[in-house]
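Entry 14. Structure prediction run on the chain below.
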Amino acid sequence: MIGEALSQIGMTGNEIKVYLALLKSWQLSVNEIGTRSGLHRQVCYDALERLLEKGFATYAVQNSKKFFRALEPEKLLDYLDTKKELVKQAMPELSRIAALPKEETGVEVMKGKNVVKAILRDVIKSLGEKRGEVLMLGVDEEKFEEEDRIAIMQYIGQLKKLKLKERLIARQGAKVYFEGSQSDYRLIKPEFFNPNPIYVYGEKIVQVIWGNPVTAVVITNKAVNDAYRKYFEMLWKQAKK
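Output returned:
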């Protein structure tokens, strides 16, 4: 437990051994530290140098020879308070940096059995915050039910509860649709239908690729999102009500 506590305040394994060897004695020379810690002389010098830099050790010169002492355990708390105060002083600048514009484009790849659930949760979160709508291309509800029926039903329930909307372009001849004012479908001919669905919402584009494992590519970029919205609207006008 002692070693773990000291490591949490920034000591390495060798530094801990040296510090504890010093703590057990009033003061020690490098050779004595090596004997008591089991570390090579040069390793002791390196550890001592870092302990001195961090303020965990001091030294005194007696008869032209250095003797090292450990920082009293009680003063470790003072050390932590000092570090905390430094972070507080830097906080305004850190907050300013955090508020700087982020990268315009983000790309993330998701894989596994929970991909659909993660996407649907993100859609609800995004729409709930901005009150927009989700646009979907290549929708085959039968496939979604097969993949994760529970997640789909929870998603539909959330759309209804929060009075959110989705517009979907599906395939003519499909057998499964979700009834309700939350979902508005239009249909295109099977030969023009892309079976891998695309979500357009917020500033994101999500391309789902059915397979083993299910894969989703998430692109966050306003310009790309706008382009897909225009593409969707073009198909929406041409699709059958």
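The mean pLDDT is 88.
Filed with the rest of this week's runs.
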